[in-house]
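[recover] target loaded
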């Protein structure tokens, strides 16, 4: 039963990629990627900001990066890149093999990449070693500092502090908070934050409320825009925007639409959302119809 569920998940995953990328483009890129998997060679590619990235041959996340190019998150990374500040810092929560950290490094003062999975750290170090302003922190972020069990999924991008499965191994990891970083790094001044923490994103934001208010960073997060989240960001004068696709059967074949999210979505699929501080609101309003 478990194997059948996993196989169905993989089938649906690849079917979604085919619809999103296009049949022939998907086939070509998939065959190129398959060569590296078969030969067990790590693959190199150049990101849209002209930075080279090494994709481990056995990384599903690496495969997705190669297949989608600069549209891994429907183009959200392109918008995030526009708002980086060379005089301010970038925080990458759930850095994995370093995709967002590499996009941010040339355009940021310092990059703080959080990755608690020991299996990913060597890949992350390899990718970020080309920049002297990148700092790898082998710990997780949450609402309170301390230690927690991290569920280690066979696909590391699905690791979670809050989603547990008896079939998966666990490792105890150090946990910090965004707010505590202000005292850990007195010179910290944040322009942008990315979080991808498989269910822990809201707790991470709650543990960073003071930092969010102080620095007013642009946040790109995997979190779903629930009523609870929308009420929280409204209380600190942030606004939600996202690329969305229709939930109907033709939604996967359509280009995502960029829009403001004011209530919990019911007819749209969302991959990542922007939490936009008031200082950037007018610029995001201009992006609404792009």
């Amino acid at each position: 039963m478990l194997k059948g569920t996993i196989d169905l998940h993989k089938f649906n995953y690849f079917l979604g990629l085919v619809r999103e990328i296009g049949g022939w483009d998907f086939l070509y890129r998939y065959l190129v990627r398959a060569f590296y998997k078969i030969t067990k060679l790590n693959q190199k590619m150049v990101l849209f900001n002209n930075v080279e990235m090494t994709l481990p041959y056995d990384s599903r996340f690496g495969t997705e990066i190669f297949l989608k190019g600069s549209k891994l998150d429907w183009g959200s990374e392109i918008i995030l890149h526009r708002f980086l500040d060379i005089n301010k810092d970038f925080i990458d929560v759930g850095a994995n093999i370093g995709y967002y950290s590499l996009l941010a490094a040339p355009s940021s003062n310092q990059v703080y990449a959080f990755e608690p999975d020991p299996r990913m750290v060597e890949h992350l170090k390899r990718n970020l070693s080309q920049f002297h302003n990148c700092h790898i922190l082998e710990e997780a972020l949450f609402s309170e500092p301390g230690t927690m069990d991290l569920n280690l999924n066979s696909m590391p991008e699905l690791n979670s502090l809050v989603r547990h499965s008896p079939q998966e191994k666990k490792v105890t990891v150090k946990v910090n908070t965004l707010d505590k970083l202000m005292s850990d790094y007195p010179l910290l001044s944040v322009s942008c934050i990315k979080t991808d923490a498989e269910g822990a994103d809201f707790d991470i934001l709650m543990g960073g409320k003071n930092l969010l208010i102080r620095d007013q960073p642009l946040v790109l997060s995997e979190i779903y825009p629930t009523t609870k989240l929308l009420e929280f960001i409204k209380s600190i004068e942030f606004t939600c925007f996202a690329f969305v696709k229709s939930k109907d059967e033709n939604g996967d074949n359509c280009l995502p639409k960029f829009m403001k999210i004011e209530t919990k979505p019911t007819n749209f699929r969302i991959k990542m959302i922007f939490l936009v501080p008031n200082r950037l609101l007018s610029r995001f309003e201009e992006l609404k119809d792009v």
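[recover] notes: The chain has a mean pLDDT of 90.
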